[in-house]
Structures are given as C-alpha cells and as structure tokens.
Amino acid sequence: MPDGSLQPHGHNKLVEVTKTIKQPRAKPGTGGGDNDGPSISPIEPGEGATIGASQKFAATITDPSGVRSVSLVITFPDGSSQSFTMSNSSGDIWENTLTG
C-alpha cells in the first residue's frame, strides 16, 4: 500500500502458507571464519496453515558464530516480494507479527 500498511493478498481472503526455504549461506569472510549457514527450525506457521489479517511468524535460528539479524521474505503469487525484520524475542527465537 502507498502508506506502507499491509493488505492480505486477495484483500479479505485468507491466505494459505507454503514454505520454500532456501538454505542460508554465510557471507564470505577474510579466512578462518564461519562458512556454514545457520540452522532454522521449526518455522511457524507450519506449511499448509491458513492465515488471515494478522499472523505471527517465528523460527528458532541458531549458528555457532551467533545470529545478528534475521529477515523474513514473503514472496507473493505475482512474484513480487517484501522483506520484514525479525526481532529476537528470547534465546534463539526470532519473530515478527504482520498485520494486514
């Protein structure tokens, strides 16, 4: 939306969640660093879940080198995508609640 607010795809229709998870990759460093991506599990909502105008997205994300930031990228049926910053709620749990 022009004002930055979210509106569920299909307006007031419920959306079905499907997961396509790309394995994160560590950014190349200057040697001796962590070359493995983080571990991500479980992701909420689960695959096949139906969501409405408001939905909490959460995941447990771990990496031996630590996790500084997490982004949630939503790809819409038309191929466009939007990125949202996740917040560390406690320990290794990262989440964001999106409201349409």
Main beta sheet strand tally, sense and closure = 5 strands, antiparallel
Structural class: mainly beta
Order of helices and strands: EEEEEEE
Number of self-contained structural domains: 1
- For the secondary structure, the number of strands is 7
How far is the first residue's CA from the last residue's CA? Answer: 10 Å
What portion of the residues fall into strands of 2 or more residues?
A: 35-45%
What is the subunit arrangement here? Answer: single chain
Rg calc: 15 Å
Spatially, the strands of the biggest sheet line up as 2-4-7-6-5
User: Could you list the spans in which at least 5 consecutive residues all have pLDDT below 50?
Assistant: 4-15
Mean pLDDT: 76
Give keywords:
two-stranded antiparallel ribbon, mainly beta, globular, single chain, five-stranded antiparallel sheet, 100 residues
Architecture overview:
This protein has 100 residues and is mainly beta. 0% of the residues lie in helices and 42% in strands. The chain has one domain (1-19, 37-100). The protein has a five-stranded antiparallel beta sheet, with no helix packed on it. A hairpin with a 5-residue loop joins strand 5 and strand 6. It starts with 14 loop residues before the first strand and ends with a strand. 1% of the residues are buried.
